Amino acid sequence: MSKAIASLLLSLATIIFSSISTTAQYKIPFDHKPLTTDSDMSEMMVEGIHRFLVERTDQIQSVRKTHLSFDFESSNSFDQSVKGLRTHLKNRCGAVDFRMVPELMVIADSNQQPLVLATKAVKTTAVSWEVLDGFYASGILIRPNSKIRARLVLLPDADTTPEEASGMLYETIGYQQAISALLKAGVEILMIQLVDRSDNFSGNRQLRKFTNQPHREWIYRQAYEVGRHIIGYELQTIFSAIDLFKKNVSNERSLPIAVAGHGEGGLLALYAAALDTRIDAALVSGYFGPRNRLWTEPIYRNVYGLLENFGDAELAAMCWPRKLVIEPGKVDQVLGPPEKTSERSGAAPGIIQTPEYLNVESEVMRAKGFLPDDNDHIHWISNPERTEVAPFSETAIGSLLHGLDIQTPEATSELEIPKLTYDHPWVDPLDRQQKIVRGMQSHVQDILQRCEIARDSTFWKPL
User: Taking the CB of residue 184, how many other CB atoms lie within 10 A of it?
Assistant: First the structure.
């Protein structure tokens, strides 16, 4: 070692030790105590953040009351009093894009023959329509051959196809009794396919990169960056379906409209009824309760700042004076995302379970507390055993029909739902799911491209 380097090191050491000595003599100008813990500081930080957020979530319910000012003088005055809340919720859910004027299209097979099944009493058609520019919804339209008295947007849980839910497949149970009762009462049903929780199309085939994020999370993560949301896209689908009903030029234009959902569909039915006053009655099954453990649910249910303004009770109150039926319906457990593999990973944890009966009941009672005593629009389907029930029970369907001013049909034999046979051409459910996922993804990516143009015009050019 040269003398010059040794001299430099000695100088640095002198400066360091001098600094330590000066610091040790400096008096800290506030009360303090030495940090003596041997615990992992990063773990302590995470635990502290967790504790703060849980406490904040518990406190937030009282904060919401300061944002609420319901005016029950009339339906018009009520809508005016919640106009700001509805706009705020739409923005947070990303349901903000201009919807296309919908044109109902009948899906055809490879021979260009329309996909239609019919019996003497019922006609079932595979349909699609454009919701947003380039994004198409898909499902089945079930129409009774009797006089149409009302129209219903029906939303099965995310992993249930319309064919399974309607009873078109022999090996599934679905909601046949409910659908039969609705059809006998003269209700036309448009059943929508939701984005499911598989990961078949979560990734990029050209790049050979995939993830085990369920489709709902796959869309959620992309959309969140540009102020959109999987919930918002599916709300837009519901609103577009109502546009279709209202667009009918026949004398059926004034027919009442309802929405009914189970599980993930129940979430959407609740949000849609709170936002769209064209919905005359709604049925929510398998989704209702306090959301103070929302962080345990899948990440695609996360809406930024939701709990500051909205719990399920507040959303239920926002449906006034239109009929809202709440049922403690059973849902299939979701214990996490699709299984992680060496080629597919990256999904967030999160579980879905049947809401506990007492929790649902308490949230219903909290919702009723917002309402005038003489004008309660919420019908709670209570159960003497205080347990969950099968979705879309006879009592729930009867209450929904009552909200539409339709008499419940007599309990006779069920209507015969058209059945799919293995040799009958129909929509490939996997192909349909891919088109819906890719349609949402393309819409998100198009917005992402437009963001750069928006930044240039609103930020860089003025600068």
Answer: 20
